[in-house]
Specification:
The chain is α/β, with parallel strands linked by helices. The chain is 30% helix and 17% strand. It has 10 helices and 12 strands. It has a 12-stranded mixed beta sheet with strand order 7-8-9-6-5-4-3-2-1-10-11-12. Helix 1 packs across helix 9 and helix 2 runs parallel beside helix 3. The radius of gyration is 19 Å and the shape is globular. The chain binds S-adenosylmethionine. S-adenosylmethionine (SAM) binds next to strand 2, strand 3, strand 5 and helix 10. S-adenosylmethionine binds next to strand 2, strand 3, strand 5 and helix 10.
């Protein structure tokens, strides 16, 4: 098991399959993109498959989320999903995506054994979409969401980040739209993980503000089921059954219940999104390490996990890798 010194068990793997992205969201990366990982540094499909197998067979991983960068632009994604599904029928498999290309790939992903998708969408307005993502692709995202829903990748969860003065007036519209389409909407507080290091606490739209905006038009009541390790606090909307989630990583951290472990596209284990240290599995793997040795390295990397992400500590330092290079 991937256990840390505080007794947390990590059975939820978020694996980045590429650091590249086809959008350029202003709060994530600069217009020109980033210095992408050189191809030889990125894990091959076989290497990804082997590390997932070690995670599942030896280390108790029960849930695998494929992310990036934009995971749908990884050529081998469908095969990677298929191989992962072949390990165990009961694994929970999902993809976090911006939705571009999802219309084309949803069927193949279902066929490979994917359970569901988390789709990122911050606005319903095409002009705002272009401003936020620096690309004119809102229609493609909408078609992707619909295709995922129709293909059975449900519930389609939609993740939205509200940005002050940009889309923070859209909370209610986004929720109304999500409910009408049977998508589950979750708002994510903006975190200090942008490549430009432009995040400012006083600019961030907080969970409290999100609740205040939503409560102008909807009645929210906390769901009765325990939250467990889920990042989102869930609320019934107008008595249900529709729900809305708020992931308040900054103002209401949930590190004490974290069960997540991250593997970057170049094979580095990160025991926290905000970790400042990584553990290199790729180097060991390519140097001929056995599965047992790789598992031992992975266990050691998790053992040193800190109790919390520390964003609210005066000594907090943003990690060197931005969100897109870690895997959101
Ligand atoms: N490309 C995929 C996507 O768009 O879902 C996966 C990677 S993306 C980095 C994952 C999620 O991280 C997206 O929902 C995005 O909005 C969110 N994100 C990026 N930077 C963020 C930040 N600084 N704070 C909070 N969420 C962020």
């Amino acid at each position: 098991m991937l256990t840390d010194s505080f007794g947390r068990v990590h059975n939820n793997l978020r694996i980045s399959v590429t650091d590249r992205c086809n959008l350029r969201c202003t709060y994530c990366m600069p217009a020109e993109g980033l210095d992408w990982l050189p191809h030889p540094e990125v894990l091959t499909d076989d290497e990804v498959g082997r590390l997932i197998e070690i995670g599942v067979r030896r280390l108790g991983i029960r849930e695998v989320r494929f992310t990036g960068g934009e995971p749908l632009i990884r050529r081998g994604l469908v095969d990677i999903v298929r191989r992962t599904r072949a390990l165990d029928d009961d694994l929970e498999l999902s993809v976090t995506t911006n939705g571009l290309g999802l219309e084309r790939m949803a069927g193949a992903l279902v066929g490979a054994g994917l359970d569901r998708v988390n789709l990122s969408l911050d606005t319903l307005d095409p002009t705002r979409f272009r401003t936020i993502t620096r690309r004119d692709r809102l229609d493609d995202v909408m078609r992707g969401a619909k295709a995922a829903h129709e293909a059975g990748l449900t519930p389609v969860k939609v993740n939205a980040v509200l940005l002050r003065g940009v889309n923070d007036d859209e909370a209610c519209d986004l929720l109304e739209w999500a409910i009408a389409h049977e998508y589950e909407l979750r708002f994510i507080e903006q975190m200090p993980l942008d490549a430009q290091h432009d995040w400012h606490r006083d600019q961030m739209v907080t969970a409290e503000e999100i609740f205040a905006r939503l409560e102008r038009e909807f009645t929210l009541t906390p769901v009765s089921e325990p939250r467990g390790s889920a990042p989102a606090e869930l609320f019934l909307v107008d008595g249900g059954p529709a729900t809305v989630g708020v992931i308040a990583s900054v103002t209401r951290p949930f590190c004490g219940d974290c069960d997540r472990v991250r593997l970057t596209a170049d094979g580095q284990v990160r025991n926290c999104l905000f970790a400042r240290q990584e553990s290199d599995l790729r180097g060991a793997l390519r140097a001929g390490a056995t599965d047992e040795e790789l598992a031992d390295r992975w266990i050691a990397a998790m053992a040193t996990k800190l109790p919390g992400h520390g964003i609210n500590d005066p000594s907090f330092l943003q990690p060197d890798r931005p969100m897109s290079a870690i895997g959101g």
